[in-house]
Amino acid sequence: MMKTISRLRYKYWPDQIFGEILQKSWMETAVPLAVLIFTIVFFSTQIENFISPANLSDNFRQASELGFVVLGISLVLIVGGIDLSVASIFALCNLLVLYCMHVWQLPLPASIAITLVFGGLLGAVNGILIGYFRMRAFLTTMVTLIVFKSIHDLINVKVAVPISSNFPDSPMWDTMGYGSILSVPTAVWAFGIVALFCHILLTRLRPGWWLLAVGGNRRSAYNIGLPVNRIVALSYVASGALTSASAIFYAARLASPGADTGVGLEITVLTAAILGGIRLGGGKGSVMKAILGTLIILLLTNGLLRMATSAGTARIILATILLLAAALDIRWFKNRHKAVQEMYVSPAYLKLPEMPDDVAAPNAAFAPNDRLKNVETIGLGMIEAPEDVILDADDNLYSGNRHGEIIRFFAPDYKRHEVYARIGGQPLGMAFDAGYNLYVCVGGMGLYRVTADREVELITDETNRSLLSVIDDSRLKLADDLDILPDGRILFSEATVRYEMHEWQTDALEGRGNGRIILYDPKHKKTTTVLRHLTFPNGIVLGSDGQSILFAESWKCSIKRYWFDGPKKGDVEMVIDNLLGYPDNINVASDGNFWLAIMGMRSQVFDLAMRKPGFRRRMAKQLPGDEWLAPNINTGCIVKFNEAGEILDVLWDMHGENHPMITSMREHKGYLYIGGIYNNRIGRIKLDGADETFVSSGKYHVG
Amino acid sequence: MLDNLISWIGSRGNTRGKSLSIPVFDGAFKPNSLLEEADILAEHSGFSDLVAGADNRLLAACENTVVEVSATGSLSEIAAFDRPVTALAQLSDGRLAVGLGDTVVIGVGTDAHVSIDTVDGRNLTAVTALYPAPEGGLLVCDGSKSYGCDDWAWDLMNNKKDGRLIALDAQGGNARVLASGLGYAFGAYTSQETGVLVSESWNHRVSHVADKRAGPAIDRLPGYPCRFAPAEGGGFWLSLFCSRTQLVEFVLKEKDYRTEMMATIDPRFWISPSFGSGSDYLEPLQGGGVKQMGILKPWAPPRSYGLLVRYDANLTPQYSLHSRVGGRHHGICAAAQVGDTLYALSKGSGRIVKMSILKTRATLFGENAA
């Protein structure tokens, strides 16, 4: 009963999606967004009319004022600094703009300009001290916070009365304070424009990238020649100017030269920035995060206010949230990749048919023998990782290696070799067309062609993206084996869309249908996925009817057949459902049957683990990869079978002297050539009674 | 704080937290190939114990017999039994004692032999090792209450900890349980300097036994300790029949998996330590054990391993002899020193190997070190 529940859970619950979502970079913004939504929902259930138009409009007006400061401090945080003095700059600028407007009666644009420049200058004090004199940001801005505040207090006593007793006659000034344009508050318009500019700056413009670069790694930024000091200094200037902009709108709205203007502002904006997900350590942050943080903090303060929380309590709540956010910020950024790593591997339930008890009995279909013991060795030490081997009409032998080349061994003795082509990724399955152009699946790159005159050309490296996939599966991650169809199209397999080639072991541990079979149509230059959710598909070979292919599903230990044409088009049928090992490449034999490479043998403990996804998940989390239980790929064999699924012959290298792991084999003129992805040699064995004129590849034209 | 909380939550289920780390081979345990390269003296698949007799004869338990191994490696039978001999010792008076799984026989080959099969009201189940006490008595290791000597893997996988260390007098009487509740007693030793020691294989430690209690004397061993052999110049040789792997430690925490593994799979193919490996493709393989470019890495996670450690009388490890992954001389379960020659019994390969201690020390520490 419990087993059934567990099986169904693993069958239908999409475990893998969590890891995939977590991997997305937009997850960083998703967290503050979720917090914002939670805040809104919470307060709208607690407070009536919390999202009424009037309240919203008021909230947004305040949010925009706060937003200017948050934007400013975000720029500073991105550079890796901190600006505590914003509160005092805010207070001073408030006084200045009020004095300009009320007492001097200056025109509005002049007042704004003077205030902005003044704010920038105050910021420049910080900037010069921190950027050029290399003083600590925290201490410096704390000192300027106190100094500016003291100056403010001194001046405030003298100018408060003149400001309060004069009133400017400026409708524009009033519109800035509490007017609206198209029923959106003026402040919101202004903030929107500035925010948009900052967004473009950070994401599209060079100075913005410089900011991120300096914050990400100051030394590297210096080493590539960025004017680090100037960039740091300018970020404080920007912070000061943006704070003064905020003060202007604040002054226009309240016209109040209060003694406690801006007190505690630095805590509020810091909380907002960090809640939004802007890192304290620098190098990360966006305008969207700043806005989200601002909204959260504003709704929170206003909500608390309307719930009649006392000012002290509200402060404490805010401070607690800041503390939590800072702790979470550090832990999250430090451990996110670990979380992704742990979450990403999501083993599935995979029940293989029982292994027969008499697997090793002398008369069993898979009875071990030592027929591969006396293979002739080709290229020992000259080739590393020949996944697939293929021969041309002149009997030259081709094979990929792990350095990303195709090596050609010359007939007749295969003692000499040359680099036939350089590709750059590891060549896996290969096939010749009738013109002896070599089509090759390249791990991590896609499907390539090496023409008869040795030009390397890309055939395709992407297919149609599936509708519901979280990760982008349009790129080909692990194209694996292919065959050329009689009509000139190419069918090839992609073993897994979730892992890179060197991570095949993780895919084996997952045992999920991560692979697919893809059709390339050269006439229309179109690549389409024809079969999905296959468990490490492999070994594509054309069937005898010319309308179907045989393919292997490695971790499912089975061979299947897929019709791409004819009356059964689209059908998939099982050919062998209970192999004793993990099948890899399949190729045609001279007698019309098929050769199958078994890369490794099943073991009962691994089969059992495949039925226990939780066990494998914990194993993947707690043990390093080298310690994982793995499929036994230290013993492989070669099997001959027919389309009816009967095992006709088995060749073993029991002690794994030459061919512990076999990933491919190809019959050519009476010999069988053997390759293995973890081997450093190619094997060759004479086949008794085989057709000595038989050539396995090079039948059909592509196109 | 957060870490503690998470690890506390983790320790509720088997998710994380509990450390799976195992001691690494460093210091005196630094790997070498000395065991692997040792000369082969004799080969027989049934060897199970080895002792150096009082008159420098080399005696071995082999299937149902006790044999003397000559300097050339030929075997001559001394005594035969109806069951496999599981442990062997020579008392200080020269008489032989053997363990026959669930029985101890003292005075083999003489008319006055005594058989003991019950101690303190509990039957002996797995007599894994015998060691002569200096005053003429005998220390007996009864590995488990539930499983015989051959079924030790069941004992481990069931997390059993009910081995006993028993002392007998020279006549086989006056049986006393020195310690019980041992995580598989598989070797005992006693001397003036060290007191009574017993190997607790499943606890990866050698315990010091006094007043019916066993406390750790050598802790956090990188393998599963088994029998002791006295070394000339004080101290002893400790054989470890396999080294530990994180996978086995992990499986020991996974009850569900273990239960089904024990119920459905032949013990030869379990995830467990082993005396030997590499003979069957159905054996489990770990990721690091995949052959690359025709080579099995010696640092791959071992299924079986050969390890023999020299301890001095202060229980400080001096040096160790290894047969690493890919080697043959695995499953070292007994050793014997005769003069300069060290003999080791590799159960995995069924071989008795020998080497010169002087030469070994010279290889390890340089020519002048001997």
TrEMBL record, chain A:
It holds the Pfam family BPD_transp_2. InterPro entries: 6-blade_b-propeller_TolB-like, ABC_transp_permease, Strictosidine_synth_cons-reg. It comes from the Bacteria. GO terms for molecular function: transmembrane transporter activity. It is found in: Cell membrane. CDD domains: TM_PBP1_transp_AraH_like. GO terms for cellular component: plasma membrane. It is a multi-pass membrane protein. The chain crosses the membrane at residues 30-47, 67-100, 112-133, 178-202, 228-252, 258-278, 290-308, 314-333. Residues 480-566 form the Strictosidine synthase conserved region domain. Keywords: Cell inner membrane, Cell membrane, Membrane, Transmembrane, Transmembrane helix, Transport. This is ABC transporter permease.
